[in-house]
Amino acid sequence: MLSNPKKPTAQDQLSREQFAEQFFANLLSCPWQAHPLYSPFTQYDREHYLAQRAEFAYKYRCFYAVSRAIAPRSIIELGAGGGASADAYLSATPGARYIGIDVFAATKRHDDKSIWDPYEIAQTLFRDRAFPNWQLLKADLRKMNELPAKADLVVVDAAHDFENEYADLHLALTANPKFIFVDDANEEAKPAIEKFLSEDLDGRVEYTFPIDYIGGGLVIKLGR
Questions:
Q1: Does residue 151 lie within any of the structural domains?
Q2: 206 Cβ partners below 8 Å, 6+ apart?
Q3: Does the global pTM surpass 0.90?
Q4: Domain that residue 150 falls in
Q5: What is the pLDDT of residues 161-192, one digit of tens each?
């Protein structure tokens, strides 16, 4: 006896036009604000972000709008850092299951030389925001053959050189995502993204949607 095929989900049926419409509507109505204690504007290299505060605030509102448009039930982020990006993604879809992967290396702040520990900061941030379903995984992405779970959305935002970006994009596929979102897609990672799209996805791309903010983002919608 044949099993019933799975019903298409909202993510499966989201066309490029619908995504664009929802993204811009979400961006316009975005209520998200950076956490006063745990954000890019308070991290170890905060002077870089503070010098371009409006541009980076817009970038993180774009993260919120992407997540809200996709409405993922599960998110895996490669390069979780101190959780600032996840704060935007999960504020848009607070019920989503989230796994953030990083080496979470502590470092000294540039200005006062105090220790900035991204693992502790991300945990504190998520608890303060009362996100209900999250996990932080300390791991070297280059030692992983596959991601630890399936996910509707995989965010690629770790090292952006060609080799690491290309490897992370392949690793993202092991979660069988409906969407991949690449941050800083217009910088040194761009050749790796172009190679991945043209040579490795074998007709699986339903559409891409570039987002114009500092560093640039790219939404990749995958078919089956």
A1: yes
A2: 16, 221, 222, 223
A3: yes
A4: 72-222
A5: 999 999 999 999 999 999 999 999 988 899 99
